[in-house]
Amino acid sequence: MFQKIRALFIGSLLALSLASMTYSTAAASRTGQNEPKLASKIAKEVRHELVMLPYYSVFDNLAFKVEDDKVILMGQVVRPTLKSDAENVVKSIEGVSRVENQIEVLPPSPMDDQLRRALYHAIYGDSVLYRYGLASVPSIHIIVKNGHVTLEGVVDSEADKNLAGLRANSVPNVFSVQNNLVVAKS
After folding, report:
1. Calculated CA dihedral for residues 72, 77, 79, 81, nearest 10 degrees
2. Phi and psi for 18 in degrees, rounded to 5?
3. Is 50 exceeded by the pLDDT of residue 123?
C-alpha cells in the first residue's frame, strides 16, 4: 500500500513538473513572438517623440536604433539642449529601460551658420525641391561641420537626390558634400 501511494505521489510530481515545463516553454515562445511587436511599438513611439521636439530643425539629424528594451540615439544637432531633450523624452517611453546617447553636438561656428543659411536657400529655393521644405520638419536635413556638408533624409526620386547634391555643391565655401539622401520606395 505504501508503495502504491509513493508511486502515485512520484507520478503526480513528474506530471506536475512536466506540465510546468510545457507552460514555461509556451510562455517563452509567446514572449518571443511579442518581442518584434514590442520593438516596433517602441520604434514608432521614439520616432514620434523625436519629431515632436520643439527645437528639432532642418539643421539637425536624429536617428535611433532599438535593441530589445535599449534605445541608441545617433545623429548630429546644433543645440546641446536638443541632445539632452532627445534623451529625456526617450527615457520616458514605456518599455524603454536604457538609453545610450551617441548624438554629436556640432561645434559653434559663424562660418557654418552662414553656410547653413546659404544651403537652405539653395536647396529649398529650387522650384523642384521646395516641396520637401513644406512639412513642419523638412525631409532633407542639412548638416554642416567645419565647412563639410552632409545631406540626410528621404526624397521621392533619384533625380531629386542628385539635384539636392548639385544645389549643395553650388554653394560657395563648401569644402565637400556627402549626399546620404535615401530614395523612398514607391
Report:
1. -10
2. -65, -40
3. yes
